[in-house]
Amino acid sequence: MKNRVMVFTTLLGLMISPVLALAQAPATSAGKVGVINIQEAILSSGEGKKAMAELQKKYQPRQQDIQRLQQEIQGINDQLQKQGATLSEEEQARLNRDLTAKQTLLKRSSEDFNNDAQADRDEAVRRIGQKMVRILQDYAKQNGYALVVDNAQIPVYYAATDIDLTAEMVRRYDAANPVAEADAPAAAAPATPGARSAASPAKPGATPKPADKPKP
């Protein structure tokens, strides 16, 4: 629920101004209505895919460090549970100190990872989103649209498939902002069990917050 509220708030920042601008057509003109999933359009563009791949590569070492720390903590917990009755008081105290220190480090490392990766993701999405919205505005004005809404955030109970502009905006964005073939993201490697993408960072046991969207 928290994710949906944050995404909705962010997308409002991205979409309200364009919707108002498109709705300023004279009352006598019956303009068309279109729908778009702006987040899907941003992340489906060549530039969006490239940005997320670069973030994944940048944050993968820190992600792996956090996973190793989680495994070390689990190992100490297992040792205390399985061998607690046979360990000396001194050894139990040492293990508990080590456990507390690693848990503190895990909490700090996870928070830093989330904050840094989220800030980078937000910046990339804002940068791409601002250009995407300008392309959408130009397209809507040129093609007689009076209103374009985000169908991922505003309830749309019926919409003809031919008014969904998501794919068209991705096509136009990629045409206006081509990604060189050498810079195109490679096919994603199979995910490691239990691993999370740096593009959607999260603390262990927490739900990742969505990225902020750019204001036009």
Summarize the structure.
Helices cover 61% and strands 5% of the residues.
What key attributes describe this structure?
single chain, disordered N terminus, Protein Binding, DinI Protein, Chain A, 5% strand, 2 strands, 5 helices, mainly alpha, 216 residues, disordered C terminus
Descriptive notes:
The chain has one domain (11-183): Protein Binding, DinI Protein, Chain A (2-Layer Sandwich). Helix content is 61%, strand content 5%. It has five helices and two strands. The protein has a two-stranded parallel ribbon. Helix 1 packs parallel to helix 4 (89-142). The longest helix has 54 residues, at 89-142. 22% of the residues are buried. The model is unreliable at 1-28 and 187-216 (pLDDT under 50).
Secondary-structure map with pairings?
Elements: H1 2-22, E1 32-36, H2 38-44, H3 46-83, H4 89-142, E2 145-150, H5 166-176
Parallel strand pairs: 1-2
Helix pairs in contact: 1-4, 2-4, 2-5, 3-4, 4-5
Q: Which architecture would the CATH scheme give at its second level?
A: 2-Layer Sandwich
Q: What's the story with the biggest beta sheet?
A: 2 strands, parallel
Mean pLDDT: 79
Low-confidence stretches: 1-28, 187-216
Order of helices and strands: HEHHHEH
Report the total helices: 5
Dominant shape: elongated
Quaternary structure state of the chains depicted = single chain
What is the CATH C-level name?
Alpha Beta
Structural class: mainly alpha
CATH topology descriptor: Protein Binding, DinI Protein, Chain A
Strand content: 5-15%
- Main β-sheet, spatial strand arrangement: 1-2
Q: N- to C-terminal separation?
A: 26 Å
> Rounded to an integer, what's the Rg over CA atoms?
23 Å
Helix % is 55-70%
Number of domains: 1
State the CATH superfamily name.
Skp domain
